[in-house]
Design brief:
59% helix, homodimer, Tetracycline Repressor, domain 2, mainly alpha, DNA-binding, DNA-binding (chains A, B), disordered C terminus, 196 residues, disordered N terminus, elongated, 0% strand
Chain lengths: 196, 196
DNA sequence: ACCTGAACACCGTTCAAGT
DNA sequence: ACCTGAACACCGTTCAAGT
């Protein structure tokens, strides 16, 4: 017989939070938001429904993780390029986020229903703050403006999703009105801080 | 025995759509959005759950009617007063709608998830168009601006609801930035059209 | 036309048990 | 620690039947 070293009871890590979130994301992309159920996720991951509760306290926690998962798919290199005009950088972030949200119908309501306090959410918010600081906004104004940006992005896509229309013109028009309203807030406007 | 005149089969109109929507609204106000269920509505109305389907094809239709019901509770007299500055009139509409939505947590997601094409929704939208026209916006710009207003209002309240904060300062600040961005769109600005 | 009881096919979640 | 089968308390919706 083999040596009787203390065998750990049961498999140690055949699953993980990531496996569950991957299954949830696949379900969201293929079947829509209303099909993202605990039982559906478990079935796709090949486990029993209640096994999910080993990793997440409840469904809300799974959806919160799923929202974070979605934001992680957006990486903006152009947004970080401080040599570009700040309005263009905002446009880039807005377009990329909007496209990601429109690609997964229902994901907007996911973001609107969960606090955007995860790692990826904070990263995007921080990138936005940098852009707005480069635009000349004071820290508190930049924070308010970043929130305003979130409101506009999520609100726009939510209405686009329910009304079944892709109104890119309207989206960019509203974004520009919003940026126009922010311009007077810039105390030290500088388009190319790298050259100053 | 009494005369055998053709008695109509069953009670003719003991219920109505309005009774069901009233029950739904009461449930929303008292127990929250997630407790607005077909079975709950029926119980409060004193009928069997499937009786609801005599008046509405499915739950989505009930919620659509409920969204309309909510908007009907907002009546703005000040918004119609063309003697007031247009920014004040917008502020009034925004404040009243926001207060109504915050009073019923979950109602925001109700509005965001249903097309705002009902009678009350159109009335509010029309009032907004009048204000924006008085502000000097051309019809197409006014239409875009009205949509922008919807996006901002619903997006703001949605984020306020999920983050459990009532940030009135932030709300008004963002609204003003938005209105600032609209000012250049006014081709024929006139504050008091009644005096012209 | 309007309402009912009963059933169907689902949910999220919990519990006791097994490794 | 991790996973399972079974159950509980719900859902929305449909169907056949009654008035």
């Amino acid at each position: 017989m083999t040596e009787a070293r203390p065998v750990r009871p049961g498999p140690r890590r055949t699953l993980s939070e990531q496996v569950i979130l991957d299954a949830a994301l696949a379900l969201l992309a293929e079947l829509g938001a209303d099909r993202v159920t605990i039982r559906g996720i478990a079935a796709r991951a090949g486990i029993a429904p209640n096994a999910v509760y080993t990793y997440f306290p409840d469904k809300a926690a799974v959806l919160h993780g799923l929202a974070e998962q979605l934001l992680g798919r957006v990486h903006d290199k152009q947004a970080a390029d401080s040599a570009l005009p700040w309005r263009d950088r905002v446009h880039t972030v807005a377009r990329d986020l909007r496209n990601e949200l429109l690609a997964h119908p229902g994901s907007v309501h996911l973001l609107l229903g969960n606090s955007l306090d995860g790692q990826n959410a904070r990263a995007i918010g921080a990138a936005m703050l940098v852009i707005l600081a480069d635009a000349g906004l004071a820290p508190d104004a930049a924070a308010r403006a970043a929130h305003l940006f979130n409101v506009y992005l999520l609100g726009s896509v939510a209405l686009e999703t329910t009304d079944q229309v892709r109104a890119t013109d309207q989206f960019l028009w509203g974004l520009d009105r919003l940026l126009d309203g922010l311009v007077p807030c810039a105390v030290t406007p500088r388009d190319h801080p790298g050259s100053g």
